[in-house]
Amino acid sequence: MRVDVVTIFPEYLEPLRHALLGKAIEQGILDVRVHDLRRFADDQHRSVDARPAGGGPGMVMRPTVWGRALDEIAGGGAEGPGLSSAQPHLDRARHDELNGLDPHRYEEREDDRDASGDARPLLLVPTPTGAPFRQADARAWSNEEHLVFACGRYEGIDERVFLDARRRFRVREVSIGDYVLIGGEAAVLVILEAVVRLVPGVLGNSQSHVDDSFSGGLLEAPSYTKPREWRGLEIPEVLLSGDHEKVDRWRRERSIERTAERRPELLSEALAAGLLDSEEAAAARRHLDEDWGED
Ligand code: 6GU
């Protein structure tokens, strides 16, 4: 999977080279390029923002600068700096030193296409005004050949950038939660980690994300490991019984209970989607009724 990130804070993406994502980079499964937006500025001060049209607080990122950055990436010429994992990097040439680029080198190939046959790369724009990023998106995007992230700062990016970008990208504005961050960089780390762990070959044990919270529409049950008793607290007896059926049933019950308590809206969705058998559905309704009005 090829990933391009455009940001005014390239250093913010350094954590990508560690742990799981670093391993994916080493294995050649993931090729991440980080681009400094300021390289596309055209004035002496490398300014990327200006006062909002119509007045108001803050600054808005300029379309001219973003347009040039996205043109280069859509053209396939943005070689950028590959992030090689766990290596000293601070002494390396800056990623923004791209040269000799042919803006039309990016060939359309059959395997560039998504399931709908659209060959345009996916442009992801982290913003608190975006649609919620969910596990289903992570799953879908883990099949993409090419993801591009546009990190905004300040009060956002000139709206025309997204309209224009639709000619060459499939564009999705996404939010990672109902709170406001200073910029999209932290959200890129979050989204990429969620996506890349689902790319085949990245997580050793492919079963380990089948049971993930959210994949089945419910939160996962609590887990335990040895010792059997710790500070006066015991592992639930059933988990030591060796009876896999009983263990599975117990885990489903705890999942339903926990989801009712913490994310009742998810449990209602799971019910409506028919993800629960009749016994589980009855338990879910009971929990939802009980928890209703409690705080
Ligand atoms: Cl994706 N970006 C920013 N800047 N703020 C956010 C967010 C994203 N999700 C929630 N708040």
TrEMBL record:
Residues 98-117 have a biased composition (Basic and acidic residues). It is found in: Cytoplasm. One of its GO terms (biological process) is tRNA N1-guanine methylation. Residues 98-128 are annotated as: Disordered. It holds the Pfam family tRNA_m1G_MT. It is an enzyme of class 2 (transferase). GO terms for cellular component: cytosol. GO terms for molecular function: tRNA (guanine(37)-N1)-methyltransferase activity. S-adenosyl-L-methionine binds at G152, I176, G177, D178, Y179, V180, L181. Residues 1-74, 120-268 form the tRNA methyltransferase TRMD/TRM10-type domain. Specifically methylates guanosine-37 in various tRNAs. Homodimer. PANTHER family: TRNA (GUANINE-N(1)-)-METHYLTRANSFERASE. Belongs to the RNA methyltransferase TrmD family. HAMAP family: TrmD. This is tRNA (guanine-N(1)-)-methyltransferase. The gene is trmD.
